[in-house]
Amino acid sequence: MANSSSTPTSSSGSAIPTGITDCPGSNNTIYVSQTTSGSDGIYSFRKLCGYDHAGGKSINMEAFVPSFDACIAMCSNMNVLNSQGGLEEVCRTVSFNPAGTMPGNCWASDETDIVESENGISIGLFVG
């Protein structure tokens, strides 16, 4: 009986997942994400589909997240952690690109100036 051997194979052509967005259906709606502990959030964000940061101010954090809602949650939770530490809310907007790739498709910023975007990018604008 002959011995057979198998050689492990790998594929470098794995597809990179794209982020999930509810735009344009959620345009101009208010979203409150849950906190990291799963309780109701305290910060509200207005979803604006087809907009992006105008640029010129700091990006406080970049991450690769699965959805627009998760992007807003990142910003909201940054503000929760800051408020618990006695600091003011520093995340004013998030910009989400569902077609973005690693290392980031979500950018949290203190930017409040926004511009229209035709690249599928949407923002969550802090409203309180």
What would your notes on this structure say?
This protein is of the alpha+beta class. The protein has a single domain (30-126), classed as Hepatocyte Growth Factor (3-Layer(bba) Sandwich), CATH 3.50.4. It is 13% helix and 26% strand. The protein has 1 helix and 8 strands. It has one helix spanning 68-84; strands at 30-32, 44-49, 51-53, 59-63, 93-96, 106-109, 114-116, 122-126. It is globular, with a radius of gyration of 19 Å. The termini are far apart. Mean pLDDT is 84; it is low at 1-13.
Mean pLDDT: 84
Percent strand: 25-35%
Q: How many discrete structural domains?
A: 1
Report the sheet with the most strands, covering strand number, pairing sense and barrel closure. 6 strands, antiparallel
Helix content: 10-25%
* Beta strand count: 8
What is CATH's topology name? Hepatocyte Growth Factor
CATH architecture: 3-Layer(bba) Sandwich
**What value does the Rg take, in angstroms?**
19 Å
- What is the H/E order? EEEEHEEEE
CA-CA gap between termini: 74 Å
Treating each run of at least 4 consecutive H or I residues as one helix, how many helices?
1
